Amino acid sequence: MHVFGDSFKRFTLRKAFNITSPAFSLFFSKPLPSLLHLNLDECILLTDDVLVDISAACPYLEHFTATWCPQLRYLGVKCLVGRCLRLRKLNMTGTKKLTDEAFTEFIPKQEGEKVVESAFRVMKKLNLESCDYVGDELLLKIKRCYPHIKIYNYFKEEVEL
């Protein structure tokens, strides 16, 4: 089946327990500019390297979901937020090793400081439910800088100012 081209707008692959990181990387090795929605829930061998490849291959991605992917840490998510500047929804529920470092580059350390351009300026929803190492303090900083984003914390509570 030939899936590449202008009509390839959505792709969902859930519970792909045997697809390795190199296989994912091969799939995302060519540009996929028309891909807008990508769901890779419970793909347990998905790694940050694959998310880096996705961020390069899918620059116009608007919705990305990779819930309960135990090998993801920070680099891949950081690349998605920094490169996919149309990303409106990011769902990383249950990404147990995800850390604050995925997001710190995109929020100012002090008032008035310039930050790296990111998807945060257009993002509508950021779900970090059950992400053990993403702190509430960071989520509050993101909310202060980008009040239009609905942010969900570890307990799936909306972060409010």
TrEMBL record:
Stored Gene3D superfamilies: Ribonuclease Inhibitor
InterPro entries registered for this protein in UniProt: Leu-rich_rpt_Cys-con_subtyp, LRR_dom_sf
Name of the molecule in the record: Uncharacterized protein
